[in-house]
Amino acid sequence: MDTTEMISQKGSSNALDIAYIALGTALIAVCSWISIPTAVPFTLQTFAVFTVLSLLGGKRGTVSILVYILLGAVGAPVFAGFSGGLGAILGSTGGYIVGFLLTGIIYILFTKFFKKSLVVEIIALVLGLAACYALGTVWFMMVYARDAGAIGVMTALGWCVFPFIIPDLIKLALGLIVARRVRPVIK
Q1: Residue 106: which domain range?
Q2: 62: which of 6, 103, 107, 175 is 20 to 30 A away, CA to CA?
Q3: Rounded Cα distance, 187 and 182, in Å
Q4: Rounded to the nearest 10 degrees, what angle do helices 58-73 and 3-33 cross at?
Q5: Beta-carbon count within 10 A of 27 CB
Q6: Cα gap 50→178, rounded to integer Å
Q7: Tell me: the pLDDT tens digits for 113-171?
Q8: Number of domains composing the chain
Q9: Residue range 38-65: mean pLDDT, rounded
């Protein structure tokens, strides 16, 4: 293989990566718009995050999450309720959005250090979800305390985590099923 062929293959690989990342970002944005408004909105964001990570892999999936967050931070209406801007990120639920990055990082680490299998993916995504909950809840408590007064950990968990555990685990399972069905088509 000569240098021209190697550059051509590298260029098409980069273009394919960019296309997959853009599609992953778009999926997360579209799924965030499907929501039921509550203190922390019920959305399909976590479904999209799980699907994108499993389907595209840790690196491309995490970059998709990062691009999604950056788009929202600069004002694109990609978050729940068609919101965007730094105010959305710095608001009470912004920690959960930023926490999606933790999910991606944990997924990368687990699938890199352990052979990628369904069990490893499930463990990585569940631990990533727990990290997202932890960061989001601490963030929520800090912003809520600043805006309305201090609340207890159990109150914050009751508002922001407990109602979401079962739905998020269902979304995790569905995300893995969708990714496993679609993965052979995109290879």
Answers
A1: 3-186
A2: 6
A3: 9
A4: 60
A5: 21
A6: 10
A7: 998 899 999 999 999 999 999 999 999 999 999 999 999 999 999 999 999 999 999 99
A8: 1
A9: 93
